[in-house]
Design goal:
It is built from nine helices and eight strands. It has helices at residues 3-21, 40-48, 59-72, 90-96, 106-115, 143-154, 174-194, 209-214, 224-227; strands at residues 30-34, 53-56, 78-81, 99-103, 123-129, 159-166, 200-202, 219-222. An eight-stranded parallel sheet has the order 7-6-5-4-3-2-1-8. InterPro entries: Ala_racemase_N, PLP-binding_barrel, PyrdxlP_homeostasis. Residues 21-227 form the Alanine racemase N-terminal domain.
């Protein structure tokens, strides 16, 4: 069994155990493999072992991979943009990704809608929640801000609001992560009350899988635990 296969199996086992601990169906929890800095060959291996959702942080790096797989791999693959949205990269995001996880302002919404090709399906979008309260960090801070962005997305015919995304504060302990994620969950339920079709809560990376699942996440973003060995781990995806 090669490393990637072993790690994917391990993560899916973690998902099953955590889901059953809180009486959730593990089949309702999806895994995004974060493939920033990973080669096309590495992604091919993960596809061979059943992975179909991939997350990328850097637009130019992602574009090369997306174009290659469109040409060479006929399987249906979903590409998720999970990095910071830069205005000069919005067109590429709109034209090539299936999901955008980091919506935090109206300007990005309007430009993503403007540049989304009509021939493509609606771009799935998540509003990013900043639970740190630090205004220098990406994401919105209040429920009111979230609802305002949700209204704006509803007005854009080429975008589809799917839910929200957030990250725990770096180096948080389990109890702190639970508190942070429960706060995000209140945002999610409030959004669902207004927008019943919203179905996606994206929480959880390699260092906080359990609190994410315990707090209702159904979309995990995992990179380090899939692709990095102990000798070269360097991030918290």
């Amino acid at each position: 069994m090669i490393f990637i296969q072993k790690q994917l199996n391990h993560i899916h086992n973690q998902i099953h155990i955590a889901a059953h601990n809180v009486n959730r169906n593990p089949q309702n929890i999806q895994l995004i493999a974060v493939t920033k800095n990973q080669s096309i060959n590495t992604i091919k291996k993960s596809i061979f072992y059943g992975q179909r959702n991939f997350g990328e942080n850097y637009v130019q790096e992602a574009l090369k991979k997306i174009c290659w797989f469109r040409t060479h791999i006929p399987d249906k693959i979903s590409w998720h943009f999970i990095g910071s949205i830069q205005s000069n990269k919005i067109r590429i995001i709109a034209e090539n990704f299936d999901w955008c996880h980091t919506i935090s302002n109206e300007k990005s919404i309007y430009h993503l809608n403007k540049h989304r090709p009509k021939k493509l399906s609606q771009l799935n979008t998540l509003i990013q929640i900043n639970i740190s309260g630090n205004h220098n960090k990406s994401g919105i801070i209040t429920i009111e801000q979230m609802l305002k962005l949700a209204t704006t997305i509803y007005q854009c015919s080429k975008l589809k609001l799917r839910g929200i995304m957030s990250m725990s504060i770096p180096k948080s302990e389990f109890k702190q992560q639970m508190i942070q994620f429960k706060k995000v969950y209140t945002f999610f339920k409030r959004l669902q009350n207004i927008c019943p079709h919203v179905d996606t809560l994206s929480l959880g990376m390699s260092n906080d899988i359990l609190p994410a699942i315990y707090s209702g996440s159904n979309l995990l973003r995992i990179g380090t635990s899939i692709f990095e060995t102990k000798s070269n781990k360097h991030d918290n995806t």
